[in-house]
């Protein structure tokens, strides 16, 4: 028989060592690799790019216990244009931006660096942290014609991005391309209403993107969905000022472009140039279809509902082609259709449900569809807009737009 007190002592020892083990495990699992461990200063002036890249290397190529990169709170890190590149060893990498990031205090040659901060070929990336990312766009706007985007995620399947603030990008704030399964929420993207081409979020060649609970105030589209994109959901987006949420522009320079399965729900547009928009170039080919806008509130929005199949971009200055060289592209959409070649981008199956509020222009609904292609299967269900100016009546204008309406005022859709 073992001495009871010896037994107790042994038992306790085992429990303590177990405790110690699990505690250590916990620490390891929650361990962050801070950029300050690699020499980042965070005074907002000194160039911290190399320190960030070294920290990235440690996280991306490190073992499974070092998968979290930390940008500590209370400091501002100046970064030159740089790229965080995968693939990484771990299938889940966290990039926690608790402090602030700021772009250089000078402009650079965009031919070499079209993006300030880019993320390439990283699966399972989680970017969050509550920090502010300042692109210092005012150094560029109206001064440099070709400007960089602030952040670009290319080939980042499974990306999660939330709880961050982006300010004043030189061009678009966030670009997503060649990726699948993306969730974005709780972002604030802010730039002046008159800043050029400062889109909030641009999506191209991507499948399965869910964006919710974002506040976007910009000088261009709050969100733009470009060619090669499908299954894109946007919920509770507060847009304004800005040019609204746009499908397109599609088919620029005769390109073949396809977008389908897009839903915009429970969103508010305040003092925007447009509300929900589909814009395609007459010259292109492809299609935009299976698109729905539901429970949308307009507050003095300029063109609350608009389809423009004859789009011309007067302010192309500073845009870099959205064309991404990605292998995903080939698997999107239908094969090249000769019959559509250069004859326009087909628009069909577009549903507007419970769109209400006020229009800043008297023409609340614009369906400007191509004479040959037309727009097909447009449904307006409980669309009720009034003028933001008292005493004014709003009206709808349709060219070659076919579809039906339920309890919607002033519709001009033709059946067939
Ligand atoms: C988009 O919304 C639909 C309907 O709510 C849902 O079935 C689908 O999974 C969503 N897609 C994404 C990518 O979140
Ligand atoms: C149509 O595209 C061609 C190039 O494919 C271009 O040269 C022409 O200017 C375009 N026309 C219009 C009206 O955009
Ligand atoms: C959208 O708004 C409607 C009406 O306000 C509400 O009943 C519904 O729960 C909301 N849905 C989402 C996904 O926010």
UniProtKB/TrEMBL annotation:
Record SMART domains: PbH1 (SM00710)
Signal peptide start and end residues: 1-22
GO MF: polygalacturonase activity
Gene3D superfamilies the record matches: Single-stranded right-handed beta-helix, Pectin lyase-like
Oxidoreductase keyword on record: no
Pfam families: Glyco_hydro_28
Main localisation: secreted
Active site (UniProt): 243
Alphabetized UniProt keyword annotations: Cell wall, Cell wall biogenesis/degradation, Glycosidase, Hydrolase, Secreted, Signal
One BP term from GO: cell wall organization
Subcellular location: Secreted, Cell wall
Protein family (similarity comment): Belongs to the glycosyl hydrolase 28 family.
PANTHER family: PTHR31375
Full protein name: Polygalacturonase
Species classification: Eukaryota, Viridiplantae, Streptophyta, Embryophyta, Tracheophyta
């Amino acid at each position: 028989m073992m001495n009871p007190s010896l037994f107790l002592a042994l038992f306790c020892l085992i429990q303590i060592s177990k405790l110690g083990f699990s505690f250590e495990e916990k620490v390891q699992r929650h361990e962050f690799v801070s950029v300050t461990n690699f020499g980042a200063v965070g005074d907002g002036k000194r160039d911290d790019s190399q320190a960030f890249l070294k920290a990235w290397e440690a996280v991306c190529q490190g073992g499974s216990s070092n998968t979290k990169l930390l940008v500590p709170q209370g400091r501002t890190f100046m970064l030159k244009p740089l790229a965080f590149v995968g693939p990484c060893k771990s299938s889940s990498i966290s990039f926690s931006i608790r402090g602030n990031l700021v772009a250089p205090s000078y402009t650079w040659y965009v031919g070499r660096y079209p993006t300030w901060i880019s993320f390439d070929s990283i699966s399972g990336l989680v970017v969050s942290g509550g920090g502010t990312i300042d692109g210092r766009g005012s150094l560029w706007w109206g001064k440099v014609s070709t400007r960089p985007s602030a952040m670009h995620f290319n080939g980042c399947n499974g990306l999660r991005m939330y709880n961050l603030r982006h300010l004043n990008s030189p061009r678009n704030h966030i670009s997503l391309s060649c990726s699948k399964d993306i969730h974005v929420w709780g972002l604030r993207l802010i730039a002046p209403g008159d800043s050029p081409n400062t889109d909030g979020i641009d999506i191209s060649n991507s499948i399965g993107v869910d964006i919710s609970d974002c506040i976007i105030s910009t000088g261009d589209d709050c969100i733009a969905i470009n060619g090669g994109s499908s299954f894109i959901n946007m919920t509770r987006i507060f847009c304004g000022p800005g040019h609204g949420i746009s499908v397109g522009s599609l088919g620029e320079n005769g390109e073949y472009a396809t977008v389908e399965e897009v839903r915009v729900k429970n969103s508010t547009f305040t003092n925007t140039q447009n509300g929900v928009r589909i814009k395609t170039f007459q010259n292109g080919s492809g299609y935009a279809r299976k698109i729905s806008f539901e429970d949308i509130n307009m507050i003095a929005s300029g063109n609350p509902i608009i389809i423009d199949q004859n789009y011309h971009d007067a302010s192309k200055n500073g845009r870099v082609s959205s064309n991404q060289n990605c292998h995903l592209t080939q698997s999107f959409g239908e094969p090249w259709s000769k019959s559509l070649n250069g004859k326009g981008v087909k628009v069909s199956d577009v549903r507007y449900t419970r769109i209400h509020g006020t229009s800043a222009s008297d023409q609340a609904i614009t369906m400007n569809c191509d004479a040959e292609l037309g727009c097909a299967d447009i449904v307006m269900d409980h669309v009720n807009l009034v003028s933001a100016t008292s005493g004014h009546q709003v009206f709808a204008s349709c060219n070659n737009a076919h579809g039906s309406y339920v309890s919607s005022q002033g519709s001009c859709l033709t059946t067939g």
